[in-house]
Amino acid sequence: MKWFAKIVGKSYAYTELLIKTRQNKVNKGYKIAKAEKEAQRLMDEQFGSKSPTETEVSAETKAEPKLKRRSVDLEEFDEEDWTRFFEELGTV
After folding, report:
1. Distance CA 70, CA 64 (A)
2. Contact, 34 vs 40, CB < 8 A?
3. Is the distance from CB of 36 to CB of 44 less than 8 angstroms?
4. Do 52 and 43 contact (CB within 8 A), yes or no?
5. What pLDDT, in 10s, does the model give residues 15-24?
6. What's the alpha-carbon Rg for the chain, to the nearest Å?
7. Which residues are CB-contacts of 50 (< 8 A; sequence separation ≥ 6)?
């Protein structure tokens, strides 16, 4: 009967080791997939591959008409206007 107890004990230890090994393999796969998803999220956040918010879009559309109103026809500038412009910039 002693030999039977040894066989049962060893088979029980073997099955426990087998289950533990399989579970560790599954856990590693899950952790790797989770880390890859987190890395992808961080890269997307870092490189700015996100769509602009509605407030950013509305601010851009509101700025366009103001820029159009401030535009100047450069053909109307004469030499006097150009010199005054460059003097105001401090380049002359």
Report:
1. 10
2. no
3. no
4. no
5. 899 999 999 9
6. 36
7. 44
